[in-house]
């Protein structure tokens, strides 16, 4: 049975003497680009990881050409796209740096592994068809749910949560407006007569001292006028 022709080609470089964090900065700039475009771009990137990644992409293109020549297949290397560009952390090496007074300080030498996969653009489109456009965010469990999941809490808590969830939200929504309408209908009926009675009593209370003061002033003025008339006589 004839084997299916390969549509993606890989290359890897292991134990590169640089940190994975710094190499990822360059790898992120290359991911998703055409292979030829990425090689040209890396010539102008002023990072120590750029030459290693450039050499790796060229190796993957050479693997594609070698596969086509070996099997008599015409593979268009100009159209190959970087489908996967990954940097993994490699082994760490502990070293010592001499310091003053005969002391030595430890430091770490980091290494990384580089992986590149080139694929035809048609293959990438076919794989993207079955994937969702976005991934739903992971829902974080509450403390009670985590306790139940790990077996550190009884299942009663879970039953209560289920009962609360089973209660229809519609019933709550119907009750609230009904209560508000009843409260509004009752409030004006209670407040109006009370307000009227309070205003009348307040007016009467305000009018009484004013009338008394007016009467007193009138009587005083009348008495004064009488006394003056008696003196003149």
Task: Give a quick set of tags describing it.
three-stranded antiparallel beta sheet, Ribosomal Protein L22, Chain A, 7 helices, alpha+beta, 16% strand, 57% helix, two-stranded antiparallel sheet, 5 strands, 233 residues
Describe this structure in words.
The chain has 233 residues and is α+β, with helices and mostly antiparallel strands. It has a domain at 8-129: Ribosomal Protein L22, Chain A, CATH 3.90.470. The protein is 57% helix and 16% strand. It has 7 helices and 5 strands. It has helices spanning 20-30, 35-42, 50-71, 121-129, 143-150, 156-166, 169-232; strands at 8-16, 81-89, 93-98, 104-109, 112-119. The strands form 2 sheets. It has a 3-stranded antiparallel β-sheet with strand order 1-5-2. The protein has a two-stranded antiparallel sheet with strand order 3-4. Strand 3 and strand 4 (104-109) form a beta hairpin. The longest helix is centred in the last third of the chain and has 64 residues, at 169-232.
């Amino acid at each position: 049975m004839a084997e299916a022709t390969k549509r993606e080609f890989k290359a890897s470089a292991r134990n590169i003497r640089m940190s994975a964090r710094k190499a990822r900065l360059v790898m992120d700039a290359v991911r998703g680009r055409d292979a030829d475009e990425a090689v040209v771009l890396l010539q102008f990137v002023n990072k120590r990881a750029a030459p290693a990644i450039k050499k790796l992409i060229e190796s993957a293109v050479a693997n594609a050409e070698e596969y086509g020549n070996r099997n008599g297949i015409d593979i268009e290397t100009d159209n190959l796209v970087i489908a996967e560009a990954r940097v993994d952390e490699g082994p760490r090496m502990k070293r010592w740096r001499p310091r003053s007074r005969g002391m030595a300080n430890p430091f770490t030498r980091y290494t990384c592994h580089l992986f590149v996969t080139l694929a035809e653009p048609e293959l990438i489109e076919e794989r993207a068809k079955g994937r969702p456009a976005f991934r739903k965010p992971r829902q974080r469990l509450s403390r009670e749910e985590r306790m139940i999941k790990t077996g550190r809490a009884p299942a009663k808590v879970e039953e209560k949560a289920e009962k609360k969830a089973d209660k229809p939200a519609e019933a709550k929504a119907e009750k609230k407006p009904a209560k508000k309408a009843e409260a509004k209908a009752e409030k004006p009926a209670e407040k109006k007569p009370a307000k009227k009675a309070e205003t009348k009593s307040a007016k009467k209370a305000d009018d009484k001292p004013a009338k008394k003061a007016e009467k007193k002033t009138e009587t005083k003025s009348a008495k004064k006028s009488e006394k003056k008339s008696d003196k003149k006589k």
